[in-house]
Amino acid sequence: MHHLNWLAIVAAAVSAFVLGGIWYGPLFKNAWCREAGIDPNAAPKSHPAKTFGVAFVAALIAAYGFAMLLHLMNTGPELWKTVHAGLMVGFFFVAMSFGINYAFAGRSLKLWLIDSGYHILQFALYGLILGLWH
Fold it and tell me: Contact at 8 Å (CB) between 89 and 131?
């Protein structure tokens, strides 16, 4: 896919980390840990480098897939369209998929709101970055 801006895709993936650091850090760390049943002071179950590595690869694949979707939709450089597409993908696909899983797992509405909110904003950021840097 030579028509995609790889620097923008990498920047979009990095933006997921910046957002995640704020979202799951000072904004919602305590609430998320409480709702997920995780002790915020416990040692990680796996090495942080592995966790962050997997998360970055997943964010990069998601940003690449979203860039391809924007190209296939022939969205063009109109910023409102790319951000709108990000909000729609985040809400209708990611958040609703989480909703199904969380319902069957018996997870709380609060946990769903925290996790879904992150991903809605993640894809909106992807749209913003890919729309500005096409």
Answer: no
